[in-house]
Task: inverse folding
């Protein structure tokens, strides 16, 4: 075992091992630029959506009105409490 480790220590380093740092740095910079592009696209989409919403609200012709409360809170004739009432 000692002999094997000594030979491994004396062996020259592979050429690809000296280039691995450059490859890792290039991949990291590529990922960072992709993430930056994604954030910029998301920001542009958010600004566009806000602009469309603002413009759509500006062109409303009639003011918004709430629904009548009698329609919203009408008693349901099919509610279990009314179906089980035997009076």
Result:
């Amino acid at each position: 075992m000692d002999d094997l480790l000594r030979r491994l220590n004396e062996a020259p380093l592979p050429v690809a091992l000296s280039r691995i740092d450059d490859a890792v740095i290039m991949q990291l910079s590529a990922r960072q630029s992709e993430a930056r592009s994604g954030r910029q696209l998301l920001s542009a989409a958010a600004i566009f959506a806000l602009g469309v919403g603002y413009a759509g609200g500006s062109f409303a012709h009639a003011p918004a009105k709430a629904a009548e409360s009698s329609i919203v809170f009408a008693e349901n004739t099919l509610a279990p409490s009314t179906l089980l009432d035997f009076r």
Summary: Helices lie at 2-10, 15-18, 20-58, 69-72, 80-83. Residues 19 and 37 are 28 Å apart (CA to CA). The radius of gyration is 35 Å.
